[in-house]
Each structure stands twice: as structure tokens, then as C-alpha cells.
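Protocol step 4 of 6: structure prediction from sequence.
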Amino acid sequence: MSAAHAYDVTGDNWPDLVTRNATNGELSVHVHSGAFSGTSTYLPPLVTGTGWNIFNWIGIGNFVDSPAKDGTEEAEKESYLGDIIGRKPDGTLWLYPHTGTFNGAATWTGPYQVGSGYQEAYRLWPTDADNDGYDDLLWLSKSAGLKFQANTRSLNGVNTFGPQIQAGPRTQGPSLSNTDFWFLTNWYSDMPDFGVMGTGDLQLNYYANSHGQVSENTWPWGTLMRRFDNAPDVFAYDRRLGAAADVTGDGTDDIVVVKRNGELWVFKVRTPKQGASQNTLEPGVRLSSNWQNYDIVT
């Protein structure tokens, strides 16, 4: 399972990729080189921890304050170092805040339990849904649809995230249970939009954020949907693994996916927000290989 969005881990303002090895439980960081240059874009993986197979989901986001990249107020608002969050099979959530320094296994501190009862969530996404500068929790339940919990901006145990708020129709959970690739992007606006690629669906869709207070109408399914009709190559890939990340450095999220043979590829996105006449995906570019043992990419 993959999370929604990649984050900077090293402090250079480029999105790094965090993976979990299914065979040995190692957590690794694939550092962005600072240039979009094919197979040289990401450096070889650096192991930053072991024993991460205790989690059945791992994500990354800005949950607690991190040191600003250059010490300025603007940097503090715009650029944070990614904190790690994981869910155990018993439904508890555990947070590992970034220390502010990329330093192998000492990069993250903790863990701190920040929630319980998430056994039913079959999709979770860290994202700043209320635009306050801190990542909140979105999660999809088969019985209750899309749920939202705001970040309280305080690391306060199981009260770190606020009460559950319905963020989508309750009926959507079962109806979208076959959708195999979800991620949050900035394709349509500066607020998080949903990218969706369903099982058997021959199109890549995304649902724009309505820019209102988080409610059942924040992402109006079907009414503000955009399609990428020129994306046949993406369907040859293992869409369980991937993330949204601005790999190319143009300010727009790209799609990063893992091919069934273990190759990592990126698809650059062009939408009317970026001046394109229509939604398009540029041809894929191979970034790396030997990713077949990873079962989580974020």
C-alpha cells in the first residue's frame, strides 16, 4: 500500500522517497539528487531503520513543527521535513517526528501513539486538508466512507488529531473499494485534490477540492472530475505502489509508480493550471530498478 505524497527528508527541498522492504522490514530513504536526470535522479537507498514490518501502513507528512530550511518565516511556512506515521494491525497509529537532521536511523525520534481504532481504514492519507500548514488525516472506511481528522498542532497522544468529520458520502466506501491507486495532488488548485485510478478503469481521474470547509462536499465525486485520456502506459504498472511527487522540480506533482518488474518510473503531469490546453501525461521516464521487494512507497 502506498501513501499520498512524497516529502523532503534531507532538507534540500526535493522530494525523497521512503520505502519499506517486505522481506526484512528495513525502512530506506531514496534521496533525490537535486536534478531530474533519468536513472541518476535518485541516489541508492540508505537504510534508516529495521523492524518496520510491525506496521501494515506507513505514511509521511508534516505533523509537528520542523526546523525551517533556511531559518526564514517563509521557509517555515512552505517547507518542512517529513515525519513518519504508521498503523499497526491492532489499529493503533504511531508517529515518529523528524529530528531536523537527516542522520540514518537517528533521523526520526519516537514513537508516540497518536491514535487507535483504525483497523477498518483501508486507505489513509496524510494531507493538509484545512490549509493550516499541518497535515491532517484522511481515511476511507468501507462502512462510513471518507473521514477527516484535523491536526490539533500539538503532539498530544491519542488527542493529536481531532474528532472525526464526514468528508465524503457514507455510501462511497463500498462503491470505491476496488479503486487500487489513490493519491493527493496539487493538479487543479493549491488545496489537495484526489487522484484516482480504479481497478479495470482505463482512465486516470482526479477530483478537485471545492475549497470549502471540510465536509461531505469537499471532493464532489463525479462533478469536478478531470480525466487523463492519454495514459495507457500507466496500466502496465503495479499501481498498488506509487506516490505523487514533484520529481521534475517544476512545481507540479508527477506520478511515480513501480513497474511489475521492479522498475521505478515517473510520469510528468500537465494540466490547464500549468498552461496546458488539456490534461496530459508525458511519456514515462525510468528512474530506477530493483524495487520489487518494496511493499510501501511514499
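Step 5 (inspection) to follow. Residues 67-78 have pLDDT under 50 and may be disordered.
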